[in-house]
Design brief:
Elements (H helix, E strand, L loop, with lengths): L2 H32 L4 H15 L9 H22 L1 E13 L3 E12 L2 E13 L4 E12 L5 H14 L6
């Protein structure tokens, strides 16, 4: 064989040795990074996440608690709707302002109460601090289909005029 064939093999061997060296360095780096956490710490973290995702954690954030809370709220809403005769047919929300501690949104709710169609529009301001959340409703407007129960409409308007400063229909 001539020298050029040997040179090609020598170059290939050198290239493979360099690649092996780079791979060995990468392996050492990975081993070094994974040694930052002890086996005990890794096991504790693994167990925590398994409990968290399998519903073993019983705090307010657990999935089981949230499902139970949702079912309870749905039962309460159904009872209230049946008792009062109110059916909500539509809702829309537009967020006007949102910060870390305050959210302001306008809501529009339409529905029927027994035989009376209505539409409520209001602004909801929610403020949150470390200990609680407070909410207030402002700019309340109640609209009913014209011609239906004009006495009721007058009663609501007069109540709002007397009890809400600056309210004029």
């Amino acid at each position: 064989m001539d020298k050029s064939v040997y040179q090609v093999y020598e170059d290939e061997i050198q290239s493979l040795e360099e690649e092996i060296k780079l791979l060995a360095e990468k392996y050492e780096d990975i081993q070094h990074e994974s040694s930052f956490f002890s086996d005990e710490e890794v096991q504790k973290s693994k167990e925590f996440f398994q409990r968290e995702f399998q519903g073993g954690h019983k705090g307010h954030g657990s999935q089981l608690y949230l499902i139970q809370e949702l079912e309870s709220l749905e039962r309460d809403l159904s009872f209230s709707m049946n008792f009062l005769g109110v059916q909500i047919t539509g809702h829309s929300k537009k967020t006007l302002e949102k910060t870390a501690i305050r959210t302001v949104a306008t809501h529009s709710v339409s529905g029927k109460c027994r035989f009376l169609s209505f539409c409520l529009e209001f602004q909801l301001t929610e403020t949150q601090n470390m200990y609680n959340v407070s909410a207030s409703i402002t700019d309340l407007s109640i609209a009913m289909e014209s011609g239906q129960q004009s006495e009721l409409s007058k009663l609501v308007s007069s109540y709002l005029k007397e009890n809400r400063p600056g309210y004029e229909k």
